[in-house]
Write a structure and sequence with these properties.
The chain has 287 residues and is mostly beta strands. The protein folds into two domains: 15-155, no CATH class; 166-286, Jelly Rolls. Helix content is 11%, strand content 43%. The chain has three helices and 17 strands. A six-stranded mixed sheet has the order 1-4-5-8-7-9, with helices on one face. The chain has a four-stranded antiparallel sheet with strand order 10-17-12-15. Strands 11-16-13-14 form a four-stranded antiparallel sheet. A hairpin with a 5-residue loop joins strand 7 (98-112) and strand 8.
């Protein structure tokens, strides 16, 4: 790392000396981060935890620090905004919402120089979080790794594996339509499969449902009698008040080029009236 030598004898100082000190520190940090990650480019260093509130359909992010590929920048928290799903990766789907970092620079601390000109000598180099469909000018997408860069992969000196794009779908179904299977996620195409990461449902009853012991299955293909990925119990479906329920998906198998559907397990028409909203995060993986 380059340093400014401090020598006796009345050493003259110039403005370039301060640039050398700051540039040398930035280069050292850049090389350190690249060595820890195994790759160059941005990464989240601390904080910046994403919080999604499905009940209110909002997404927010805590404050933290991001490395933008060149230097460390502080990011203020992003207050909750309307949630439209979010994707991670270098190439999000066209029209899909993503989290972006937009570098910003402000100056402060005005001082009078010897030439009698007032100049601001402090520079705040930060990033602002933006949740949008398009990348802001000069910005970059939220790094593909959501946790702090120091993970088990780094400790074991294993290069991090690239993560697939995480996708999100939210669909509303009249309960009466679920006596027949309904598509949730379309088939992904040849040599690809869908891996469901998280599932939850919101029951909004008008007249409490009666499902006669049926469960709401989530499955691969078009057979509602098969659980496949998981199910929501009859006690949830028959709730007399609005209810949000999380379900742990099963990850024992995935199927090539097969859709994901939902439907009542006995394919029988329920009594009552309700809207059922399904929230799902998933990834499309190559086989």
């Amino acid at each position: 790392m380059n340093r400014l030598r401090a020598l006796p004898g009345g050493q003259p100082l110039r403005s370039d000396d301060w640039s050398l000190i700051q540039d040398a520190t930035a280069v050292a940090i850049r090389e350190l981060v690249a060595g820890l990650k195994g790759t160059s480019g941005p990464c989240v260093v601390s904080g910046l935890v994403i919080t999604t509130d499905y009940d209110n359909s909002t997404i927010g992010v805590s404050e933290g620090t991001v490395f933008d590929g060149e230097e460390l920048r502080f990011c203020a928290a992003m207050d909750p905004v309307e949630y439209h799903g979010w994707q991670i990766g270098d190439a999000p789907d066209p029209g899909g919402y993503s989290l972006y970092f937009a570098p910003a620079v402000t100056t402060s601390e005005e001082r009078v120089f010897k030439d009698l000109v007032e100049r601001e000598v402090y520079e705040q180099r930060v990033c602002e979080l933006v949740y949008a469909q398009n990348m802001p000018a000069g910005g970059f997408i939220y790094p593909e790794r959501l946790l702090d860069m120091i993970t088990a992969h780094v400790i074991e000196n294993v290069p991090p594996a690239p993560l697939p794009v995480v996708r999100y779908v939210r669909k509303s179904f009249p309960a009466s339509s679920l006596e027949q299977w309904q598509p949730l996620i379309a088939a992904p195409g040849s040599e690809k499969a869908i891996k469901v990461i998280s599932l939850s449902a919101r029951i909004v009853p008008t007249v409490p449902l009666g499902v006669d012991g049926q469960v709401l299955n989530v499955f691969y293909g078009s057979d509602p009698t098969e659980t496949g990925i998981g199910s929501f119990p009859d006690s949830v479906l028959e709730s007399a008040t609005e209810l949000h329920w999380d379900m742990e998906p099963v990850h024992d198998r995935v199927y090539k080029n097969m859709n994901v559907g939902v439907g009542l397990s006995a394919e029988a028409q329920p009594t009552g009236s309700a809207t059922i909203v399904i929230y799902c995060h998933y990834a499309i993986i190559s086989l």
